[in-house]
Amino acid sequence: MGPEPAQSSTPPGAPEPHRTSVVGESSETSLSEAVAVLRKRLWILALAAVLGILYGMYRASTQPRLFTASSTVQVRNGSSNAYRLDSNSYYGDDSGTRMNTEIAILQSDTLLTTVARDMNLANNPDFYGVTGPLPKMSIDDPNVRAGVLGTLRGSLQIVLVPRTQLMRISYSSLNAKLSADIVNQLVAAYIQRSFQTPEKQTKMVSDWLSGQLDTLKHEVERSQQQMMDLQRQLGVIGYDSGNHNELQASLEELLTAENGAKIQRITAESRYQMVKNMDPATVESSIEMTPGTAPGEFSSLRAQIATDKAQYAHLTADTPGGLGPNNPTTLALKSRIDELTRELGDEQNRVITQAREHYLAAKAAEDSTHRELEARKEEAYKQGDDKVRLSILQREYEQNRALYDGLQQRLETAKVEAGLDALEVDTVDEAVPPVSPSLRPNTYIIATTTVFFLLGGIVITFIVEALDTRVHGVPQMEALMQMPSLALIPRAKRTGAEAAAGTTTAQRNITVLNEPKSQFTEAFRSLQTSLLLSSAGQPPKFILFTSATPSEGKTTAASNLAAVMAQGEARVLLIDADLRRPSIHHRFGITGRAGLSTVLAGTSKLEDAIHKVPELPHLDVLPSGPVPPFPTEMLGSEAMRRMLVQFAETYDYVIMDSPPVLSVTDAVILGRMADAVVLVIRHGRANRSILRRAHDLLRRSGAPLAGLVLNAVDLSSPEYYGYYGYTGYSYGSVDAGTWESQSDTKKDARSGRGGAS
């Protein structure tokens, strides 16, 4: 293996399929990864919890002292049927649907406006929770009415007592007496409406029937007068109808048919006029006038609208559980309310159309029967049968009289049943002013706000994690660079052991020498194993360490790896190829007057520049030497290539330390001469865009990238918890005496500690 440039951009031992599977696996989000993110940014959750507790304490101490007054009412709809003259004319609604409809009526604008007007709430300071007089306002003003109704509806609560016919009506305000007065006034207005509405409907029917009776009365009087005139003309007092001929029988049948058709027409017309002119909210009660028709569709639609409106009011209320009017759930519910309202309007129009068509059909039948009867009358008149005429007039009179008596009885019945359709509403408990305010427990408020703040903290934690462009974990690093990780170098902790008397400079600065059983040292042994297995056929001989930016620990990684590899039988050469900011000679305590730069310049011999390390007999170090004026040209020279060929014959492994990739092009040039290039990344510092740029430069140059080394890792952090499984097996807490990964700045180099470059 020699220093020839690598021709493939694929790192040895890291085939493309393996990298693809790493990317796929790292893209999957698991519960353990989410928990690791929360543990890593636990301070956000702690801050959110503290803010939630403080805000909860503030809410608990400043919550308004609201007084809630309640009244319980019972709603019955069946006991009045015992007094009906025709019990089959009533079709009862489903109990649950009827109760939901009554709740919607209690929350209607009409009823609340009546309460506000009767109590003059628009000018009541206690209603608004203010002190002092208010400017004169009128409930007829749309803006004032909207504000008053909004306050009323927001503080009003109506709930059904399960499995009963009871409703509990509650109101909360800052004034105890006002709360009780509003509830009692609302109940009184509701009871009054429950009796007035059916009475108004029945009055409409009675008025229509009265008009029809007046017309029918004139018809009875006319037919009676004609019959009497004909009797006087014939000189008879009565008429024996025992011997009717065929024409007379036909006339009697037509008279009977005309009478039935007239009754059906009058009934259908009265129903049509009533339905057309009545309040759409009470159309379903008119359906009962048509036998066999039940108002189930109206009740179902109104109940659904009432339920959705109650839910919409809850979602748009200014409460912790409110979503606001622009939330997708709230908008969808509003759209469904509008659709149900349109369906209700269509159903009302259908009922009106059905009533009109029924009326027109009855009128057409009446007209047809009347024309046929007139034709038969004309035929009888042509025969000159005066007795037949008398029979016709007498029969017409009897029929008109019977029709008049029937409608008269129907009118009287409607007047009697005028109030029987009303609901029977009984006040079980009247509202009384509460003695003490209704306050939510402080613990409940604090717990609720804390939970909401914690949920917000969790959201913020994942947002911060998504916006963080730094590389933190191995899966994230491998997915970004599409390269395998060779090893994790833990963060070393500085102690006073390295300054002990009798230790050499190399022992003080090379951690693997003074702490051979630490996690830090074991990480480099793992790195050695990964590198030796990274290429197929034979292990790499020329290994180059570089980084994207300065101070990421590449010099520390190169020095310690060379020391670990030299502890075996292999001969290792460590070359300080960083001709701009050299520091390896400081770490090993050797002179830097002669080195790589002087050998390449021809001012010194290679034997004079290479230094032995007494602590490691198999390790030689070639320092950088004096900083040359043109480092890039010197590293890319033919002399550098010949020297590497010579090293290939003498050493088993040659480890080179180079400048950062993005700072200068030295690492790109040296990478083409190496068998394996290791990119060192400092944990928590490297930026994703910077790493991508460094990766692209090395790839395009043809450097054989072997993998990544993540340096200065805090193994106690959540994403690396338990990464080194052997921690508690044999080495315990030996890492407490290891070195901190150091910086490769000139200041550190001059101090003799040797920084991680």
Top keywords for this entry?
757 residues; alpha/beta; Rossmann fold; 3 domains; eight-stranded mixed sheet; four-stranded antiparallel sheet; 28 helices; 12 strands; elongated; disordered C terminus
CATH class of the largest domain: Alpha Beta
Give, in spatial order, the strands making up the sheet with the most strands.
5-12-11-6-10-7-9-8
Number of folding domains?
Answer: 3
Gap from first CA to last CA? 28 Å
By DSSP, the count of extended strands is: 12
CATH topology of the largest domain: Rossmann fold
CATH superfamily of the largest domain: P-loop containing nucleotide triphosphate hydrolases
Which structural class fits the helix and strand makeup? alpha/beta
- How many distinct helices? 28
Q: Share of helix among residues?
A: 55-70%
Radius of gyration: 51 Å
Strand content: 5-15%
Mean pLDDT, to the nearest integer, reads: 77
pLDDT < 50 runs, ≥5 residues: 4-28, 78-93, 237-244, 288-294, 725-757
CATH arch. level architecture of the largest domain: 3-Layer(aba) Sandwich
Largest sheet: 8 strands, mixed
Q: What would the principal axes of the Cα set say about the shape?
A: elongated
Topology:
Elements: H1 16-26, H2 31-40, H3 42-62, E1 67-76, H4 95-106, H5 109-119, H6 125-128, H7 142-155, E2 156-160, E3 166-173, H8 176-234, H9 246-277, H10 283-286, H11 296-316, H12 328-382, H13 386-416, E4 424-429, H14 442-467, H15 474-481, E5 485-490, H16 505-509, H17 511-514, H18 519-532, E6 542-547, H19 554-566, E7 572-576, H20 584-588, H21 596-601, H22 606-609, E8 611-613, E9 616-622, H23 631-635, H24 638-650, E10 653-657, H25 666-671, E11 676-682, H26 688-701, E12 705-713, H27 727-731, H28 746-751
Parallel strand pairs: 5-12, 6-10, 6-11, 7-9, 7-10, 11-12
Antiparallel strand pairs: 1-3, 1-4, 2-3, 8-9
Helix pairs in contact: 1-15, 3-14, 4-11, 5-7, 5-8, 8-9, 8-13, 9-12, 9-13, 11-12, 18-19
